[in-house]
Structure formats: structure tokens, C-alpha cells
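Re: 6-O-phosphono-alpha-D-glucopyranose structure - here you go.
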Amino acid sequence: EQIEKGGYEHFMLKEIYEQPNAIKDTYRGRLQSRDNFVKMSGIEDNLRKFTNANRIIIVACGTSWHAGLVAEYIFETIATVPVEVEYASEFRYRNPIINSQDVVIAISQSGETADTLAAIKLAKEKGAFVFGVCNVVGSSIARETHAGAYTHAGPEIGVASTKAFTTQITVLTLLALKLGKANGTLSNSEFNKYLLELESIPEKVEKTLLTDEHVKYIASIFKDAANFLYLGRGYNFPVALEGALKLKEISYIHAEGYPAAEMKHGPIALIDEQMPVVVIATKKGHYEKIISNIQEIKSRKGKIIAVVTQGDTQVKKLADHTIEVPETIEPLTPLLTTIPLQLLSYHIAVMRGCNVDQPRNLAKSVTVE
Ligand code: G6P
């Protein structure tokens, strides 16, 4: 096992650090920036299904559901297709109104999650075209779907999902680009801009990983907190949910993720000097609004840990701690902002003596209801 961990103390940390390569493996052979082309064998024959679709419905559970939420923003921006994101467990027990004009995308790291598998079967019965985004090759979901694309992240052993999340977002971005180009939403130059920026992400993730020591220091300050709040807007709202989920899963600290603007409708009542609030406040996307949210937290004495864009000065003046990530285009920010949140939960869990790779009561793959 020590050998498998490749010198890291835990699988989770190894998998966090594998992300630059995992993302590269995901787009390798698919992203062809020189030819201004995206090639995905799972979609070439079925592109019509996507371009003719009335809407896309994404079904997933857990972290994969969060990747689905990020994809919703990506598809709407890049491909201008209406998207709905559903918990597979809810979808399967409703009477979802879907038909052959709908495309269902099922996202699953393991490809074995019982609820997601059942949601796929239901969507197929109703005549929808079902596309899978799985990591495990040959898994049940990969076999049950009409077509799909693998994430190629390599085995993920840590129960808390990390590299599966960022590679799912990568695959879904490629899919949205393919679609945006096919339906004429994206010009050739916009398309190329996305491809080049996506190609630069592994290096930017590498740079983001350099925040590790600083994040560890922040973890040492807040490791005994009883609660955490995570806030983000737009593309970073699902990142806030994912950050909170990571902390809950492995450190057993209660954490809530919220869209920053919704704070005033409830969570603001929780804020006092005991409450650490992680705010994702990168420059692109609602920056000024996030700053006013930060001011609201500060005036109630909450402790602010902000994830900011490199070189930021405004948030730095207000926050107790800041963690810098490189600049990128807005749809790709989750690929960077999620990294320090993974590290924060990891270090807090280690400092609290928790079993990081196998947290209590959780399973890597939930094959029963
Ligand atoms: C379990 C795992 C999570 C995962 C979720 C969905 O709860 O502990 O890490 O996000 O299942 O799994 P899937 O394999 O379908 O992505």
C-alpha cells in the first residue's frame, strides 16, 4: 500500500496532486488546439442527438452531482442549451417528464452507483438518449448508457472524490465545446480561445498546488471549529457545495455550502466570531457583489478565508486569510478554486486524527439504495 501511495501519506493527497496529469489525460487526444478541433469518439456518431435535443438533463449523486452543477453553467454559456441537474435518487422516484427529444447525461466516478443506474434505466424507458461520463472502464453505468466518454482519471481510492471531480468537469467542458461549435454558438476564434485555455489548466493547477503549505497553516487555525460556511456565486457556487461536502466527509465538521447571495435569507444568522466562512471570490464573475457579501460577514465578526485571483488587493484588505489561484476564463475557474478547498479539508482532517481515506459511515461506491 505504501508503494501505491507513491510517497504520499494518504491516497487522497496523492490524488489531489495527480490532478494536473489527470486533467491532461482526460483531454489528451481529444483536444486538438492546432486543428481547432475536439474529438470524442463517444459523441461523433451521436452529435445530432445533442444538437437536436430540447434540453439536457444531468443525473448524478454526491461529488458527481456537483460536477453536474458546474456543467450546467458551462453548457448554458458555451453551448446555449437548457440544462437541468437532478439528484439521481430524486429523479428515479418522480415521474420525470422526458422523451426522445431529451438527452440525459449520467455522471459517475465508479459507474456503479445504484441510484444513478436506476435513473438511467428510467430515462431509457422513456425514450431519452443517455450519455455516460464515468471513470471506471467497463462499469455498469458505462455499459448501460447508449454512449459515453470516460474521464481517464486513473483509479481513485480515497473515498472523498477529488480528481474525479476535476476530470468530470474537463470532459463536460469538451462536450459543451463540441456542441457549441456544432450548433453554431461559438465562433472559431472563441472555440480556439477555450481550447488554449483548457490546455493551460494543468499548469495552473500545478501552481495552485503550491498554496499547500499556506493552506495547511490556515487549517491549523481552524481545525477545531464546529461549523464552516462556504459561499460562492455563479460557477463557484457548486465549488462552495463541493468544498463543504469534502470537509463534512473527512473531518466530520458540519459545513454548509450556499450561494453567497442567499446568505441573507438564513445562514447570516449563524455568523459570529466562531464561524469560519470560506468565500470564493475570484475576479471574474460577480466580484463586486462577493465583496459586499464579505463585508456583511466581516461586520458580524465572521472569520473570512477567501480564495482569490492572483494579485488581488481588494479582498485581501477585508479577509482574514487569502489563498491565491491563477487567473483563467470564468467557465474554467472551478478547476482551480476547488483545489485549495480539497487541501483545506484534507489538512483539517489529518490534524483532527481522522481516517482520511476511509471516513466513517461512507463508501467509495454506493451500490445499494
Ligand atoms: C459516494 C462517494 C462519493 C461519490 C458518490 C457518487 O458517496 O463516497 O465520493 O461522489 O458516491 O459516486 P459516483 O461513483 O457515482 O460518482
